[in-house]
Amino acid sequence: MFTPNEIIMKKTLLFLIFQLFFLTAFGQNLEYWQQRADYEMEIDVDDSKFQYDGKMKLTYANHSPDELKKVYFHLYYNAFQPGSAMDHRLRNIKDPDSRMVLKDESGKIQSRIEILSEENIGFQKINSIKQNRKSLNYKISGTIMEVSLAEGLKPGQKAVFELDWKAQVPEIIRRGGKNTKEGVDFSMTQWYPKMAHYDRFGWHLDEYIGREFVAPFGNFDVKINIQKDYIIGASGKLQNPNEVKGYVAGAKVKATKGKATWHFIAENIHDFAWAADKEFLVNKQRIANGPEVYFVRMNDDSIAENWKKAEIPTLKFIEYMSKHFGKYPWSTYTIVQGGDGGMEYGTVTLITGKRSFESLVGVIYHEIAHSWFQHMFAINETVDEWMDEGFTSYAENLAYLEIFNQKREPNPNMAAYESYFNLAKSGVEEPMSLLADYYNYNYAYGVQAYNKGQVYVIQLGYIIGEENLKNTFLKFYEEWKFKHPTPEDFRRTAEKVSGLNLKWYENLFVNTTRVVDYSVQGVVNNEIQLKNLSNFPMPIDLLVEYADGTKELFYIPNLELRGEKPAEDFEWYKDAKRTVLEPWKWSAPEYSVKVSKEVKKVIIDPTLRLADIDYSNNIYNK
Ligand SMILES: [Zn+2]
What we know:
Blueprint: H1 4-30, E1 36-46, E2 51-61, E3 68-74, H2 85-92, E4 101-103, E5 109-111, E6 123-131, E7 134-135, E8 137-141, E9 144-153, E10 158-168, E11 177-178, E12 186-188, E13 194-195, E14 197-199, E15 202-204, E16 218-227, E17 231-234, E18 237-238, E19 255-256, E20 259-269, E21 274-277, E22 280-286, E23 292-298, H3 301-309, H4 311-325, E24 332-337, E25 342-345, E26 348-351, H5 357-369, H6 371-376, H7 385-403, H8 414-426, H9 442-464, H10 466-480, H11 487-498, H12 503-511, E27 518-524, E28 527-532, E29 540-546, E30 551-556, E31 576-580, E32 590-594, E33 599-604, E34 619-621
Parallel strand pairs: 1-16, 23-24, 24-26, 30-31
Antiparallel strand pairs: 1-2, 2-10, 3-9, 3-13, 4-5, 6-7, 6-10, 8-9, 11-12, 12-21, 14-15, 16-20, 17-21, 18-20, 19-20, 22-23, 25-26, 27-28, 28-32, 29-30, 29-33, 33-34
Helix pairs in contact: 4-5, 4-7, 5-7, 7-9, 8-9, 9-10, 10-11
The chain binds zinc ion (ZN).
Residues 366, 370, 389, 392 line the site of zinc ion.
């Protein structure tokens, strides 16, 4: 029996519990969330036909605040069929990827997909799909399969999907396929029905035309049955090295009817890839307190030396990245010869292997750097490819300079700036915020993603200061590893670290094709006259040399920054007194700096990190 007091207390407690429940439930709607897809797959490969039969058990967790009545899968192999969207794209884009087309004697370009024969096309044919053991209806259009759920998937619920499918590996035209130019039999990328990405922006149902990817994180447990004389390099860690060829000396290959089963487990990745060939050789290295690193290449004397020589610099690279961009979190990384260039996947990359030493190290560095900017930070490459490629290129480049003892200028990659300036002047530039698939020119896509994306970071260092930039990357790791950050999220991290407002920079640099152009107009009566010739405001570092040999560094923040960057430690600024001036309003094109001594020379940004399209008017000499 309760006394009245106890009843009141009980009621209060119930109320509190209810309140807590509702706060949590509704709070979640406003907070960051992400879906999860855990895969268990077993496939049986027919190497004579380059086909396989697959079975998948996929556990999909709905962490969204929405009830899902449908889910979608990517069937990427279907792009490699005549008449596909990828085929049409090749026939119609003005500058198609040279790997994907043929040129006849008259110079006429032909899509390689258009002429694929039946046994060389790719396909993923679904035999059945079930949700919690009930068969589901589905509709396939191009590379996207829409699946109507038997039971709506409520917030917080999980569904188990079982798929049964058959696939044919296409001739290699882009990224994955059979029989690469270097003789690798199987380059298995985009090879399984892959759960589409659903996030706070909705479903991402981009038809595959050759650009890149986004997907939910999950664990992959993959068993591959293939003729026992094959060797496989793959995402994750091999579970049974003693039962297959190539990984352990003296392994007793456990084969049933001529096939061996390869079992890999990869945790917390969002894309599983593998490659197989009978001529593969495997070499293993290990980083203290870091991952095991596997090198899987063809048994080819012409590449052996460079591959061996690349091993130690590869380990140094992972150490560099871990120190400057956050610790590498997985237990393995595997570099496999395969594919058609270099492409990153979860804890594995497929690269072509016949390269000079510099090119081999370059591609390995680039693809491993993607383990951060693409895999650990699962950036949506269909929208923000510049963030993924640009940040990757930036990190790759900084590491290369340090590991190979090259001098690091304040602007570590002037070539990226030159390339971006050329694009800006070309007349075909489109904003970086454009969906990746839709660029009119591959050229414009490539330069904005790799070069302008890199300029974004280097120039951010100019705006907030190098120290703040370094700390931004480390804080970004703390905040966003194993999530799906957007450029706004990175910008917010940079704002929190620097205390500066960067909304204007993000908006103008990413969403428009505006360019920066400042100039020193002249010096009249000890007054330096500056002008913004563009419609892009920027903070200005102004180095002044006086006639008496002394130097002064004026710092003019732009008004929207609402603060100032700390002093930076570059050799140009040695012995220069630093003076912080009043902010420059973006709405005023002119600004003047009053000095008390005779001026000999004036330079806007001697570090060359400001992406000023016309540097000739940045310098004034008396
Ligand atoms: Zn890349």
